[in-house]
Recover the amino acids of this structure.
């Protein structure tokens, strides 16, 4: 005949498991030494003891894994801080070597900027020097004037071609003769109108007029009909 208790849903070992659980946490808290469970039953069953050993081993393994992960995270944070120039999210200070490397990199870039600025200044100075030299070699602007002279003869029998030849015979540095033509004055009398270009610093118009009047056998007077700066 079967045992009636086998038909009941009763946990007969509950007290032992509760004692084993209490003993496990006591060992973890440091208030008990590993060994036999103290209690009214006088000792733990081999199954319970094995389970406690397994739990203790698993707990040690978990602690080791946790510590390894924590160390790895700290190393990663240190590398991130070093790469970001000491601005890591976790606020962990960068190593002294990483800080020195960052300073060296910054100094290198600073040197490049200084060299670029120096090269720009040298190019600018060279351009200014070239422009100044080119400007100094450029010939100065020469002031010139266009003068129209009216040269009158004594009478209508004067040889006007000879008069023009004598006038053009006056050759000076800074004097260039231009076109000439005869214009009637009155009663068949004509005058010689001639253009000349003079450099103001070299030729005086009044001096030129007086020099033409020295051909007194043919020339009665010389008038300045027009005077324009070029």
């Amino acid at each position: 005949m079967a045992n009636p208790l086998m038909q009941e849903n009763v946990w007969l070992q509950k007290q032992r498991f509760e004692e084993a659980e209490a003993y496990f946490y006591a060992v973890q808290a440091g208030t008990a030494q590993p060994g036999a469970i103290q209690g009214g039953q006088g000792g733990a069953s081999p199954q319970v003891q094995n389970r406690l050993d397994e739990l203790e081993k698993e707990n040690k393994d978990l602690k080791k894994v946790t510590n390894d992960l924590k160390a790895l995270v700290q190393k990663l944070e240190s590398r991130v801080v070093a790469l970001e120039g000491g601005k890591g999210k976790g606020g962990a200070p960068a190593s002294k070597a990483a800080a020195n490397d960052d300073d060296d990199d910054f100094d290198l870039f600073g040197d490049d900027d200084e060299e670029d600025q120096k090269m720009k200044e040298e190019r600018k100075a060279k351009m200014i020097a070239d422009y100044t030299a080119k400007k100094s070699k450029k010939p100065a602007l020469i002031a010139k004037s266009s003068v129209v002279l009216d040269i009158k003869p004594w009478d209508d029998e004067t040889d006007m071609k000879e008069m023009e030849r004598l006038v053009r015979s006056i050759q000076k540095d800074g004097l260039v003769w231009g076109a000439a033509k005869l214009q009637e004055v009155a009663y068949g009398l004509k005058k010689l109108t001639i253009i000349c270009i003079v450099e103001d610093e070299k030729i005086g118009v009044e001096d030129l007029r007086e020099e033409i009047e020295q051909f007194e056998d043919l020339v009665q007077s010389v008038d300045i009909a027009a005077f324009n700066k070029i």
